[in-house]
Design a protein that fits this description.
The complex is a heterodimer of chains A (269) and B (553). With 269 residues, chain A is an alpha/beta fold. Chain A has helices at residues 44-51, 73-79, 95-105, 110-123, 139-151, 169-184, 196-202, 220-234, 247-255, and strands spanning 6-15, 18-24, 27-28, 33-37, 59-64, 67-68, 80-83, 157-161, 188-192, 205-210, 213-219. In chain A, the strands form 2 sheets. Chain A has a 6-stranded mixed β-sheet with strand order 7-8-9-4-10-11, sandwiched between helices. In chain A, helix 3 (95-105) crosses helix 4 (110-123) and helix 3 (95-105) runs parallel beside helix 5. The mean pLDDT of chain A is 88. Chain B has 553 residues and is an all-alpha fold. Chain B is 73% helix and 0% strand. The two termini of chain B are 37 Å apart. Residues 94-98 and 286-293 of chain B have low confidence and may be disordered. Classes of the chains: A alpha/beta (269), B mainly alpha (553). At the A-B interface, helix 2, helix 3 and helix 4 of A face helix 11, helix 14 and helix 19 of B.
């Protein structure tokens, strides 16, 4: 059996008295398109920050491609690409300058950096405005550029925090095409997203975190059959209807969406 | 039914903003870092406050004797002192107090008038404004004690003078931010500066020729005094002279003219604030040109610095690109020249005017001028990540040791310091007696030692107490209170050592010892610098949350 791409054991993060992530045990195999879901404040971003070295865990271990993240952080970072929550861009550089900077920071030699920068700008359709500063890019353009910087060194694992948030359909299509191409070439992708339809369409495996704890993990089929079996055991008729459960139904079932829409704000017209 | 709340009154809005700032301050004290900042702030404010009070008492006593002794023509000098401090201090000194961006309030239903008043009132709480006001109160007390009958005029004149100062500071910064934000206007400003510097060079020979021909030089001290009288400090002094010499018409005219300055400045500031109120965006990209034809994108080769790693080289390149796009950072480079060039030029005129440089021994002029320029450039060394913003996260996700990142930043700071020193050296050499080679060597070896010392401490402070700095905003340069306290101490120690050695060598006429001593000291600092770099990689990981929380806001 091959080495998992990502494993965590007892991963925990506390902020004072608040336990943001508690005892999370994850396993992501190579080549998986892995969706990490959860409601707001569930601990998704905290987990992805710990996995990418942006945040230190309070307890637990993390291994990326078999390498302990604490023991050999630099080696792990060589193998991964990251698009963090804040996009981590230098606003006062142009797109080409930033990609050149990224290539050199990942240790690419100057000719390779220049060649890949050109290709990525073309692919992401950012080549038309070579003198525009990143700070003047639209949000979608910034997201595409952050994505380009994350893949310039050809990472084996790509971590994406909400890659489709605030991105229009065209930019979203470009990003999806690139991600699919990476998967077919054997890379592993770990993404968090609120857009369940996109996760359902793209991801082969999913984990759901709720109030800091992992409540489900597996392939979509495994999650679906788990819910259906439980509903059948509870005598819930909806499971017997023969309709395939959507990811949204699975998600709401696991994190409890029953309180939705019961409250009203009397002063709101 | 949905209802829309009434707009709160201006006083209520002021109270709300004060409450907001108080909450920001109080919440900042929750962390150890915040508490340390408060302690540093208290220490620094006490030191500054005592200094300001001492100077204020001096001004008050001076004002008393000037009025009591009837030497009224000297009164304006006091106002010039207050005026220069009020206007130059914010430009030369980074502030440690958090600046509040009033543009954030525009999401609320705020009227333009309220926006204007809010930004004015909170502008009065700058340290320079507080010290300036204190000094004016001291002057007022001094005059009132000497001649109580003048009180009727003191209050309006000083009040209008204070308002003019507040308006002028805000107007200058608002317009500078505007000009420095755009490439075209920034280049125009740079051109004006260069022309001003060149004109100073040409002025010397022209004046010399006039004097040689026995002609009267147009710009005599009397004319200069007339010009000075027409400016706000001169008018404030003139108003009080009028009051003291029982000439109410003279006092009223001066007060009226002073008020006219206030009105003009209020109007100029209003233009900027109106633009901000309408949501002005000071983006600085080049104007979009016609989209180039699709084809192979040509990307320039990245820079390759010899003897350093690729990441250090990349960080250096990024820092240089940032410098070239930042008006305030370029201005910071120009400030020492702006201050020193006129002094050097005045010296060049051969003892016509009183000049601090003329009182110095020739061998110490260059080191002192360079030390001054060095101090101004050192500001950024202690907060190296200030302009990185969100980009700092990228440094944490790449396979780079912070040692390499800081080497790149130190190289950049070293390069800007060297460029600055060469420019200052050139100006000094052109206008002042050419310094001896050994003095030049001693100065540059002293700078090497001081730079290594600054880098050793600055790297650690940059990681431990980072402060986000707003790119392109002159008024938003701010460093942490701890950083300010430690860096001041560091500068005092370094300049004390360097000054001590140079003075010793000068008095014992053995300047040749100085470079050797500085090189030995630089050699002794190298292990500390290396230790500091080695510590930085680990410290960066320990402080990554502080760094990202502070810089990615």
């Amino acid at each position: 059996m091959s080495e998992p791409a990502i494993t965590t054991e007892g991963l925990t993060r506390r902020f004072g008295d608040l336990v943001a992530v508690e005892n999370v045990n994850l396993r992501v195999d190579p080549g998986q398109f892995f969706g990490f879901l959860g409601p707001n404040g569930a601990g998704k971003s905290t987990t992805i920050k710990m996995l990418t070295g942006l945040l230190a865990p309070s307890a637990g271990r993390m291994r990326i491609l078999g390498i302990d993240l604490d023991e050999n952080t630099v080696e792990v970072k060589r193998q991964i690409g990251v698009v963090p929550e804040g996009l981590a861009l230098y606003g006062r550089l142009t797109g080409a300058e930033f990609l050149t900077f990224a290539g050199r920071m990942y240790g690419l030699d100057p000719p390779t950096t220049a060649q890949r920068t050109g290709e990525l700008l073309e692919f992401m359709e950012l080549a038309d405005r070579p003198k525009t500063l990143i700070t003047d890019y639209s949000h979608g353009m910034q997201k595409k550029l952050a994505m380009a910087a994350a893949v310039i060194h050809g990472p084996k694992i790509l971590f994406l925090d909400e890659p489709f948030e605030g991105v229009d359909a065209i930019a979203s299509g470009t990003i999806k095409a690139m991600l699919q191409r990476m998967i077919t070439r054997g890379a592993t992708i770990f993404l968090t997203s609120h857009v369940l339809e996109i996760v359902e369409r793209l991801c082969t495996h999913v984990a759901i975190i709720h109030k800091g704890a992992l409540v489900a993990q597996g392939s979509l089929e495994e999650l679906r059959s788990g819910i259906e079996a439980r509903r059948a055991g509870d005598g819930d008729g909806s499971a017997a209807a023969g309709e395939k459960l959507t990811l949204e139904q699975i998600f709401l079932d696991l994190v409890g969406g029953s309180r939705l829409g019961t409250q009203e704000l009397s002063w709101l017209g | 039914m949905a209802g829309v709340a009434a707009e709160p009154a201006l006083v209520e809005q002021l109270r709300l903003v004060a409450g907001l700032r108080w909450n920001l301050f109080r919440n900042g004290l929750r962390t150890m870092r915040g508490r340390l900042e408060l302690v540093s702030l208290i220490i620094l404010s006490t030191m500054m406050g005592l200094g300001a009070l001492g100077a204020g008492v001096g001004l008050g006593v001076g004002a008393f004797f000037i009025v009591y002794g009837g030497h009224l023509r000297w009164l304006s000098l006091l106002f010039w002192g207050v005026f220069l401090m009020w206007q130059l201090f914010p430009l030369l000194a980074a502030t440690s107090s958090a600046q509040f961006d009033f543009k954030n309030l525009l999401r609320f239903p705020l009227r333009y008038f309220s926006f204007y008043v809010l930004s004015m009132i909170y502008g009065m709480f700058d340290s320079s404004a507080l010290v300036g006001s204190l000094w004016l109160v001291c002057i007022a007390i001094g005059i009132a004690v000497a001649k109580p009958a003048m009180l009727l005029w003191i209050v309006p004149v000083l009040l209008v003078f204070a308002i003019v100062n507040v308006l002028l500071t805000r107007t200058v910064f608002a317009w500078f931010d505007r000009w420095l934000a755009k490439r075209r206007t920034r280049e125009a400003l740079l051109l004006v500066f260069v022309l001003a510097m060149l004109s100073l060079q040409f002025l010397g020979p022209v004046i010399g020729r006039w004097e040689k021909d026995g002609k009267r030089i147009p710009l005599q001290p009397a004319i200069a005094l007339q010009i000075a009288r027409a400016l706000p400090p001169g008018l404030a002094g003139d108003g009080l002279i009028g009051a003291a010499s029982d000439s109410p018409s003279r006092a009223a005219t001066s007060l009226l003219l002073l008020s006219a300055y206030g009105g003009a400045l209020a109007w100029l500031l209003g233009i900027r604030l109106r633009a901000q109120y309408r949501g002005e965006d000071l983006g600085e990209s080049a104007a979009p040109a016609a989209a180039p034809a699709r084809g192979k994108v040509s990307v320039g080769q990245p820079w390759r610095l010899p003897f350093v790693s690729a990441p250090s080289s990349a960080v250096f390149e990024k820092e240089v690109r940032y410098l070239l796009r930042s008006g305030p950072m370029l201005l910071q480079l120009a400030i020492p020249l702006i201050i020193l060039a006129p002094l050097a030029f005045s010296f060049h005129q051969g003892g016509k005017h009183s000049n601090p440089l003329q009182r110095l021994p020739t061998d110490l002029v260059l080191p002192i001028c360079m030390a001054y320029a060095f101090l101004i450039q050192s500001n950024f060394v202690f907060n190296s990540f200030g302009f990185d913003g969100n980009g700092v996260q990228f440094l944490f996700v790449t396979p780079v040791r912070f040692r390499d990142v800081l080497i790149g930043k130190n190289l950049y700071h070293g390069m800007t310091t060297l460029v600055e020193m060469i420019l200052v050296g050139l100006v000094m050499t052109m206008l002042l007696p050419t310094p001896r080679a050994i003095v030049v060597l001693a100065t540059f070896t002293a700078l090497l030692f001081a730079s290594l010392g600054n880098f050793s401490v600055g790297n650690l402070l940059s990681l431990s107490f980072p402060r986000r700095m707003e790119f392109g905003m002159m008024r938003q340069r701010r460093v942490s209170g701890v950083t300010m306290a430690v860096s001041l101490g560091m500068q005092a120690v370094l300049l004390g050592i360097c000054g001590g050695i140079l003075t010793f060598c000068y008095f014992f006429k053995s300047f040749w010892i100085a470079p050797l001593l500085f090189l030995a000291l630089a050699g002794a600092v190298v292990p500390f610098y290396r230790m500091s770099l080695d510590r930085c990689s680990k410290l960066a990981l320990e402080k990554r949350e502080v760094l990202t929380a502070e810089l990615c806001r």
